[in-house]
Design brief:
Elements lengths: L1 E13 L12 E2 L10 E7 L13 E7 L8 E12 L7 E10 L4 E4 L22 E13 L21 E6 L2 E6 H7 L1 H8 L5 H4 L1 E3 L8 H13 L7 H13 L3 H14 L5 H8 L5 H12 L2 H4 L3 H10 L1 H21 L1
Parallel strand pairs: 9-11
Antiparallel strand pairs: 1-8, 2-3, 3-4, 4-7, 5-6, 5-8, 9-10
Helix pairs in contact: 1-2, 4-5, 5-6, 7-8, 10-11
Length: about 350
């Protein structure tokens, strides 16, 4: 395997109210890093581990997650930096050290992230609701790439081109699309099940009828089929991107969902945050975290949302609507306490 060194930045990660955690109770940030290689995440103990000694304990570690393909591994000379951020204007506090990670020791860090001294206090870095904000950076972690090319195109390696070509016909409102069944099954678990099971009529007819399904259109399905062939997705506009994401998620094309999420995060604004959150609610990852963080930063976003936006959100996602109501009351109570 080819090996190069990489640096991974773990975005800002917020714990909940510190008082809700007991000693030794961890919370984890989303994992970041390239697929098929080493990834990282923060494991934070807001009330400290059992080995923490400071009177206001805070423990934090970086955990290295290896690719599923290897069981025995070791990464030496990996530099880890964990920063404690302040929401009160204090200078960030950073702690750094070089560690060795392995399958026997996957997480390294500090039981007392900052034991404190005469010049500063941990309370100054705790939010008004008892939370902490942390950020981490990991350097000199190996990047693994298989010689055969470890990418989202990897499933194509196992295609048997001696098989007779089978064309799948998609019937859609306004027209038809045609695609190679082998390529489709290689990139989508949804179509793999559909086209190999006798329980599905599509496996016999080689036709998939979306003519009465308003969610699948010529435009978004064309974008999905182009991605299957080229591994490229080009953002056109917010509506198209969310439409492609919804259908790609339904078709179990995870790599495209993740790609669209990156684009949507770049497009995220106060004007569209509720629209995006409604489309992705129930998923996990950086995009959903960014949406909630934006709402937390400005309580007026929800209060000033247009009525048609709120009506559409309630109709599309009642569970999110209930969560936003609770969130809105909580934000109102926080502002009242601060005033």
């Amino acid at each position: 395997m080819a090996k190069i060194e990489m640096r991974i930045q773990i975005p800002e990660f917020k714990t909940e109210d510190r008082s809700t955690y007991s000693r030794g109770s961890p919370v984890y940030s989303p994992a970041v890093g390239p697929k098929g290689s080493f990834q990282c995440r923060l494991s934070v103990y807001p009330a400290g581990t059992s080995l923490a000694k400071h009177r206001i304990p805070l423990s934090a570690f970086v955990e290295v997650l290896p690719p599923e393909s290897i069981s025995e591994w070791s990464c030496e000379g990996v530099k880890v930096s964990i920063s404690l951020l302040s929401q009160k204007g204090e200078v960030p506090r950073t702690k750094s050290e070089t560690f060795t990670f392995s399958n026997k020791t996957k997480d390294r860090g500090w039981h007392d992230l900052f034991p404190g001294d005469d010049n500063w206090h941990l309370w100054a870095y705790m939010g008004s609701d008892g939370e902490f904000w942390l950020r981490a950076e990991v350097e000199n972690l190996p990047f693994l790439e298989a010689r055969s090319g470890n990418s989202t195109l990897e499933p194509f390696r196992h295609l048997d081109f001696s098989q007779e070509l089978a064309v799948i016909t998609f019937r859609l409102p306004g027209g038809q699309l045609f695609f190679d069944q082998r390529l489709l099954m290689a990139r989508s678990e949804y179509f793999q099940r559909m086209l190999t099971s006798d329980e599905w009529a599509e496996s016999r007819s080689k036709e998939v009828d979306f003519s009465d399904d308003g969610r699948v259109t010529l435009k978004n399905l064309s974008a999905i089929l182009r991605f299957i062939l080229t591994d490229v997705f080009e953002t056109e506009d917010l509506e198209t991107s969310m439409s492609v994401r919804e259908v790609a998620d339904r078709f179990c094309i995870t790599s495209l969902v993740e790609r669209v999420d990156v684009e949507l995060k770049e497009m995220l604004s106060e004007e569209n945050v509720l629209q995006i959150l409604s489309a992705i609610h129930g998923s996990s990852g950086e995009l959903q975290t960014a949406c909630w963080k934006m709402l937390e930063s400005d309580g007026n976003i929800l209060a000033n949302a247009p009525e048609d936006t709120l009506n559409a959100l309630i109709a599309r996602n009642p569970s999110l609507a209930r969560k936003l109501i609770v969130f809105g009351w909580g934000s109102k109570a926080k502002r009242a306490r601060h005033q």
